[in-house]
Amino acid sequence: MSEQQFDVVVIGGGPGGYVAAIRAAQLGFKVACIDEATNAKGGPALGGTCTNVGCIPSKALLQSSEHFEHAGHAFKEHGIDVAGLSLNLPQMLKRKDSVVKANNDGIVYLFKKNKVSFFHGRGTLAGKAGEGFTVNVSGPTTDTLTAKNVIVATGSNPRELPGTPFDEKIVLSNTGALAIDAVPGKLGVIGAGVIGLEMGSVWRRVGAKVTVLEGLPAFLGAVDQQIAKEAQKAFTKQGLEIHLGVKIGNIVKGDNSVTVEYADSTGAAQTAVFDRLIVSIGRVPNTIGLGFESVGLQLDERGFIAVDDECRTAVPGIWAVGDVVRGPMLAHKAEEEGVAVAERIAGQHGHVNFNTIPWVIYTSPEIAWVGRTEEQLKKDGVAYKAGTFPFMANGRARALGDTTGMVKVIADAATDEILGVHIVGPVASELISEAVVAMEFKASSEDIARICHAHPTLSEATKEAALAVDKRSLNF
Question: Where is each FAD/NAD(P)-binding domain found (predicted)?
Fold first, then answer.
């Protein structure tokens, strides 16, 4: 057992935690980061849910499954004939694991490069120590750390359905959904959010019959509904069976299947039997058992840590970022908060603009947006004007053979300031960055319309949508 003193201790090595630790070290602080995640060999698995069982492995499987689908369906149109196509699922999963390991190892390297001390184990607050705090580490070794500032970045866990715990074999969270060892004949997905749609897409592409059960009456209710309807139409055409407005009833798990009883949108009773069931109904903050009571820190009724606009908790010197606090549960939001907190500890003015945080769903077509939707603007009584441009009129999209979707730009009716940009289509995840930059600098739709975009590119669709705000699109 050792006792060590630091300026900053970060509990949690996910996107918010490891980035906060690196930025604090860059600012000259002596920094420690604690993380308990363990890989298959018992070693550390830095990167949190995002790297280990979230963003990174899901994108690896989405890419692999998309290649498989293209080889089976789209290549022929390009003059590429593929004979004897077969799926090597173990290799697909092995590649996914190698991508995860590369990210894990990359964070270890970054800690060494920036002189961040890493402790593999569970970090728990153990009380105040002078002007700072004591944090115990329990893991392969037992350590006691002290620091004037503690940043809590412990992330979140998947929410279970009451009475239906995850076993990660038949009833799956995101963790189990990324590691199914054989393509299920019938796959059920409860929840048509980011995780449900992405994982449903992966397994549909490689041969599963996928049924998505969503409780809300509208598809992707948080998304601009013009974009959401276009996406739903595309997913349905691909073969995803999507049921909205359902009410889940009894779920009975067998040895090799699971039976789901539910009422459909008309109230009629339905029963479905699936080989596997993915439950993706949201996430809950990972805040239990961290010793908050030892320093007088209280959680709210939902288990979140209450913070002010600058991520300060009610206990001076303790900060919290990412999924354990208010705001969207997004890795890049956590990163921005982690950097901002490190800079605030250093006396600087870290800043996070919630209005320009982009959202992405990495399906095919991809869905990405930033800012407000038409529905939100109507509800708030904001006068606006909107322009759209379809990818079917974009030369690069035609060359790619991927013309599904559109770009939509919404601007203030009086000032022309961009209020929101919404995209469904190819590489929307990359295209949205131009909109984020534009909105951060309070650009007008006219600004984007006047900027020269390379031809032929998908980004021309953004320019054309901006032109369409004033009804002067050139190519549609």
Answer: 6-338
Pairwise CA distance, residues 191 & 185, whole Å: 19
DSSP state of 239: T
Distance between CA 11 and CA 241 in Å, rounded? 41
Question: Of 67, 73, 351, 455, which residue is the catalytic one?
Answer: 455
The CA radius of gyration of the chain, in Å to the nearest whole number, is 24
Tokens of 117: 């001390």
> 171-281 is classed in which CATH architecture?
3-Layer(bba) Sandwich (3.50)
Enter the pTM of the model: 0.97
DSSP state of 402: -
List 243's β-bridge partners, or say none: 213
Buried b (16+ CB within 10 A) or exposed e, 4-25: eebbbbbbbbbbbbbbbbbbbb
The CATH superfamily holding the domain 356-469 is: FAD/NAD-linked reductase, C-terminal dimerisation domain (3.30.390.30)
Does 3.10.129.10 match the CATH number of domain 2-157+284-352? no
Residue 351 known to be catalytic: no
Q: State the span(s) of the chain assigned CATH 3.30.390.30.
A: 356-469
Long-range pairs for 83-91: beta carbons < 8 A, 24 or more residues apart: 87/183, 87/206, 87/207, 89/181, 89/182, 89/183, 89/206, 90/181
Task: Give 122's pLDDT tier (boundaries 50, 70, 90).
Answer: very high
Three-class SS state of 105 = helix
> How far, in Å, CA of 405 to CA of 110, rounded?
39
Q: Which residue has the tokens 């930025």?
A: 23
